[in-house]
Design a protein that fits this description.
The protein has 254 residues and is α/β, with parallel strands linked by helices. Helix content is 39%, strand content 9%.
């Protein structure tokens, strides 16, 4: 839209109609985070890579997204980015046509496409990780009551990507996810792989949990890392915990 900055996300407001299941997940892949939501998020990862490309759609409520994520607050603000102005205009249009936003067909809702969810691990299914992240932003339960360590690490990466770490940190504390993982790890702390230790260091750093950040960084220093060798193995995944953020390791250090 003229006079509005572009954010990198794209807005699609005129898509061909697609059949969707009601109250669940359609064959085309629509996940109903909020069955009465006013926005469709399209996620494509990795961008521009047709081989292995994963495309997912989510029906969401724009209000909790804006309240919990600075990224979405800025993106969806009608006066800051073209996407926000287009979404606001589309909302005005459908509200003049339908009594409730819940009655609006999926194809008539505004669509926003996202093409980068952060440096998550290769084995992660984008569809499920992004769905759980959006459930968290809506204050809902995740798909599992106690997510495994790798899932929590990937969720922290996605939360960081979308400027939602402050909210997500409180959500994780409220759900006591780290406490549950601590209980599972007590009996096998000495046998943790380097990747597991790195995931704990990253989570402890990003989600403000010093016991993990301190304890597992010390263990990593004592044990050493394959990343610190002259030749790093080529099979190491590009997940963020292999290049720890916040000046913990590597090129981020002063």
């Amino acid at each position: 839209m003229t006079g509005k900055r572009r954010s990198g996300a794209t807005t699609a407001l005129a898509l061909d109609p697609k059949p969707h299941a009601l109250g669940g997940v359609a064959e085309q892949g629509l996940t109903l985070v909020d069955a009465h939501g006013d926005l469709i998020l399209e996620v494509e990862e990795p961008p521009g890579n047709e081989q292995g490309r994963e495309y997912c759609e989510y029906r969401v409520n724009s209000n909790p997204l804006r309240q919990s994520s600075s990224y979405f607050e800025t993106l969806l603000h009608p006066d800051k980015f073209g996407e926000g102005a287009s979404v606001a205009a589309k909302h005005d249009s459908v509200r003049s046509e339908y009594a409730s936003i819940s009655d609006v067909p999926v194809q008539k809702l505004p669509h926003i496409r996202l093409t980068d969810i952060g440096s998550v691990s290769r084995i992660t299914t984008v569809k499920h990780i992004m769905a759980d992240f959006l459930r968290a932003l809506h204050g809902l339960d995740l798909s599992t009551a106690s997510p495994p360590l790798s899932n929590l690490a990937n969720l922290a990466i996605v939360a960081d990507r979308f400027d939602a770490l402050a909210y997500f940190t409180q959500y994780v504390r409220r759900k006591k996810f780290i406490k549950a993982l601590d209980g599972k790890a007590n009996n096998k702390a000495g046998s943790l792989s380097e990747e597991r230790m790195r995931q704990r260091v990253m989570i402890g750093t990003m989600l403000d949990y010093p016991p993990w950040a301190i304890t597992y960084s010390e263990r990593l220093i004592v044990r050493g890392s394959v990343r610190w060798k002259a030749e790093t193995p080529s099979d190491i995944a590009p997940a963020l915990w292999w290049d720890l953020p916040s000046r913990v390791e590597g090129t981020s250090a002063p």
